[in-house]
Amino acid sequence: MRTAISKTELENEIAGRFGDAFRLHEKLPPAMLSTGIPEVDALTGGVPRGAISEIAGSVSSGRTSLMFSLLAQATSNLEVCALIDTNDVFAPTMATTAGIDFDRMLWIRCANNLEHAFKATDLLLHAGGFGLVVLDIGEVAAKDARRIISSWWYRFRKTVENKPTSIIVISQEACTRSCALLTLELNATAAWSTTSRQNNVYKFPSNLKTESSVRVTHANLFSGNEIKIERRRPIIPGLNESCFQSYAINGQ
Amino acid sequence: MFACIYSPDVNEELDDFAYAFSPVVEHTKQHTVTIDVAGCELMFGSPYGLATEVATRAKRPRAEGGLGSQVNIAIAGNPDTAIHAALQLPGVSFVAEGEELTCLREFPIESLEYSLVNIEAKQAEVILETLKLWGVQTFGAFAELPITGVSERLGQEGVHLQALAAGKTSRHLKSKQPAPIFSNAVELDHPITELEPLSFIYARLLNQLCATLSSYALATNELLVVMTLENKSDHQRKLSLPHPLLDHKVFLKLLLLDTEMHPPPTGVVGLTISCEPVKPRVIQNGLFVPLAPAPDKLELTLARLAKLVGETNIGSPSLLDTHRPDAFIMKRFVLPTKADTRRRRKPPNNRQIPATDQQRRVGFRMFRPPLRAVVQAERGWPAQISAWGKQRGVYGKVAQLAGPWRTTGDWWRTDRWARDEWDVALETGSKNQSSKIQGIYRIYRELLSGAWFVEGNYD
């Protein structure tokens, strides 16, 4: 009498009773939301829907510019967006020049209260129907951001799973750990066309000429942005970094 | 069967008096009402019994539910015959079916109520004048004329008038419906000071209110809650919704959140909830339109968020038409309708320039309030900056700078502004160490006070 049967034989035996329970279910690649910047889209394909994406970088690294571009792109596609502004730093006068449709953007100002920001995000995600939810903790010190308990991130990840909502977290250092499907590290180069110090300090802008004869205006500052992928699933070998130019003109 | 009540002394009270006998009441004309008495047999016996009861009650004084005067009442198989009989015959008249002409025969032709068959006064006067010229003086004489001849000479209007004179018309009463009341109230024996017991009262009243609205196929976008307090004062709360809703559970949650944010100062001894009835919202979503939050869920979420972060800290920014820095107001977040979406697709106004690939805008993070800074200047140019706030600190040597840009405005107001703005790149580290750009900031000097501030950083 035969006493031992192989695993394959056993699976074949009970396959009819349990269907495809033993088959490996591969996750479909997530739908992507365009960032509005071709260089970033070429690198990442956009930001994934139904998942957390993190944009990390220090001060003046280009995080907010990327956030503006994302919001502008989403609102122009008639998506309803939400911005949870932990430290009340969103500047509507500057954002409007990026093309953000404010009628489709819900702005929640949390007055430096991190707990309120997370609770507000949770409420929004559970309400559903938002195409893009941005949680801005970019002013929260990295040491404080690292202390945020992981259960929040797991909760957010679980809530938006299989939904068309994309969560973007803006931070100084990557803090979502393994919960983010995509983590971008930004570093803009602050090399700008300088003004000549020979000019009179109180002369008006029309009199201020740069060395390269380019008129310097508000925010005509960054000459290059560097972007690096810190985490991505699935991993695409050989495609981790990108550089592109920023042409910011007259921020006012 | 129909009954007509006529009283030359009473007009306004006649409707209320008639409602005591039948729910279907037509205010026919001044001092005259007509009621449908079908089905009233169980209460008043025969139609004649009803007519007697009406006459008896009408004689009673007004304090006892009567009219304090005598009325003419006529009962007939059709309302028009009953009206003519009541107007012409005193006391109680009963016209059996098929005997209409017998009753109406002797009535003068001038008393024909042409408005009952929707004939204009001018046209009716011409017809009546013609009838007089023919020697027709009574209803009976008119009714006996051959219908073909009447039709040929007086037209269809003449035929309708003849049928009216013969008591052969048939129509429904134009019933006057009492105005619906979309309000519910409750008075309490003991004052309520906690939210939980109040929620049960809310639930009951809202249930009734939504049932009333539903019966009229209506919804509401405004709820008014009036709480009568222990100190005899009123505490009012108005709940305005951007879209009409008809879900008592949503209303209950919204009211509870609102009451939690704006609680009454003392115990509640009475509660009234009324609403503004409007037509329900009917929307047809497009197949390719992106997903948007459900209106009821969104309202609940906004109410919860308002409770969490404060009502003034949630909404959509709206720019003000001024050059004042950071000038905007927060407006209520409302989902754009289809019409808004179509309007948005048109080229935007001057203040909203869409970013293109060639014109990427640099982000800016505004410090609210701006950081007071100590700036060391060399020949008028900022050289060293130091600013510390509760949340952040900005300090360093100015590596590069651009500016100044002078802006002034509202000089005629007390809150005028005048300042010189600079964009500065700050670096940290001493001369011996390798210096590193730590950020690009916008600083400004107030011309009125001479103080320096850090407004925010480019990001």
Could you please describe the fold and organization of this structure?
The complex is a heterodimer of chains A (252) and B (459). Chain A has helices at residues 7-18, 38-44, 63-76, 92-95, 114-127, 142-146, 150-160, and strands at residues 32-33, 47-48, 51-56, 81-85, 105-109, 132-136, 166-171, 180-189, 224-232, 241-244. With 252 residues, chain A is α/β, with parallel strands linked by helices. In chain A, a hairpin with an 8-residue loop joins strand 9 and strand 10. In chain A, helix 5 runs parallel beside helix 7 (150-160). Chain A is elongated and about 80 Å long. Chain A starts with 6 loop residues before the first helix and ends in an 8-residue tail after the last strand. By secondary structure, chain B is of the alpha+beta class. Helix content of chain B is 30%, strand content 32%. Chain B contains twelve helices and 17 strands. Chain B has helices at 12-19, 41-44, 47-59, 79-88, 100-104, 121-133, 139-143, 147-166, 195-215, 248-261, 295-309, 338-345, and strands spanning 2-6, 25-29, 32-36, 72-76, 92-94, 183-192, 219-229, 234-245, 268-278, 314-319, 328-331, 364-378, 381-388, 393-409, 417-428, 436-446, 452-458. In chain B, helix 10 (248-261) packs parallel to helix 11 (295-309). Mean pLDDT of chain B is 85; it is low at 346-359. At the A-B interface, helix 3, helix 4, strand 5 and helix 5 of A face helix 11, strand 10, helix 12, strand 12 and strand 14 of B. Strand 5 of chain A pairs antiparallel with strand 10 of chain B, so a sheet runs across the interface.
User: Distance between the terminal alpha carbons of chain B, to the nearest Å?
Assistant: 84 Å
Oligomer: heterodimer
Q: Tell me the Rg of chain A in angstroms.
A: 23 Å
Globally, the shape of chain B reads: elongated
N to C succession of SSEs of chain A:
HEHEEHEHEHEHHEEEE
Could you say which structural class the secondary elements and strand pairing of chain B correspond to?
alpha+beta
CA-CA gap between termini of chain A: 87 Å
The total strand number of chain A stands at: 10
Mean pLDDT of chain A: 78
